[in-house]
């Protein structure tokens, strides 16, 4: 689990300003797409995740932070956001109030994973869920949203991998063929996959072990088993992505590590060394059966989750800097001017400027050193002469001629000064 710190203090993690930039950009896009924010608790009944994500998944089987509260209930830190969103949707009878619901969330998730770059035990997701539409347009709207977010962030080397997992009508036949095939190659599979073969055979398809991947290359392909309605849905998703000009690759190994998916699944994968093997920046898909299976209305749904930690790492590697330096650094020339300078700083902030003032006091020289360090655009030195004349100078810290300014007009003058 990581501390996120501002500026240069962040260590291996991206500075918090980069996080804020991604979050701001995402919120703006969600608002354009008509998604409202939800904030659910970070703990839920353990049973919620067992019933949705699935008992046999790594997430529930090995990675949940589960504990008993003082009332003897089994609770878990949420490992993902879809199940809590659905729980909340059902609990508040949202379906009775609107036919189509679009929600998003930004917050911490918890998985007891083996730590490495881009893989943490507390990590953050930006997620969205759309409940109520079974049409391909809904799947594509969500993928388009992610594409636009990545574009707005300037992240180019991310590819959309697309698959369909079929539904109850067609998946069992595929699974049977898959199990037959994998059983014949059992000895070539890693230990984990030998176990998966018994309780979650589809997961073998996205095992990263090279030996397993070799086996998987010739395994039956889910896309060849889709029933007519699933095939039609998949074709429509592709057609609509094409119509929007969204590029994607078909990848029948995108099975996802959670059990609730039906039909469309997708992952956004970044080819960037900064992420190492943690190259999936986001994933999602349809979960048309989940609401009913959790005791809610029989409504189709689709969503995605993006790894905020991974997005910020990519931006950090790209060298982008966010967070603005001060407009003005107010320096105190003599002790008698300290109060006036402090008051001026406060007033300028009220007028909308970013202002830094060294509350420790100290010599003018040390204050100017600090002004330099903060990369303030201007320094304004306030002493007795300035107080008496009501005039001062805005000294451009990057060099250039000082600008004379009336103390009553600092904000206007700073705003009007040419950027350089
Ligand atoms: P997920 O694929 O488990 O899907 O997680 C989504 C994203 O969260 C991953 O692609 C990755 O970027 C990030 N992530 C996952 N685990 C970690 C970790 N340990 N450290 C850092 N980042 C991580 C879901 O969670 C689904 N709820 C997505 C969804 C929403 N499907 C439908 N609606």
Regions with little confidence, pLDDT below 50 for 5+ residues: none
Number of contiguous helices:
15
- Oligomeric state: single chain
Average pLDDT metric:
95
What hetero molecules are in the model? histidyl-adenosine monophosphate
Largest sheet: 8 strands, mixed
Report the principal-axis shape. Answer: elongated
Beta strand %: 15-25%
Protein structure class? alpha+beta
Rg, Å, rounded:
27 Å
Work out the number of β strands: 16
The percent of residues in helical segments reads 25-40%
End-to-end CA span: 41 Å
Sequence of strands across the biggest β-sheet: 1-5-6-11-10-9-7-8
Describe this entry's structure for a reader.
The protein is of the alpha+beta class and 420 residues long. It contains 15 helices and 16 strands. The two termini are 41 Å apart. The mean pLDDT is 95. Histidyl-adenosine monophosphate (HAM) binds next to strand 6, strand 10, strand 11 and helix 11.
Would you spell out the secondary-structure blueprint of this structure?
Blueprint: H1 16-33, E1 36-37, E2 43-45, H2 46-54, H3 58-62, E3 66-68, E4 74-77, H4 82-91, E5 101-110, E6 122-131, H5 136-152, E7 158-164, H6 171-184, H7 191-199, H8 210-217, H9 228-244, E8 249-250, E9 262-270, E10 280-286, H10 290-293, E11 301-307, H11 308-317, E12 328-332, H12 338-350, E13 355-357, H13 364-374, E14 378-382, H14 384-389, E15 391-396, E16 403-406, H15 410-416
The structure holds histidyl-adenosine monophosphate.
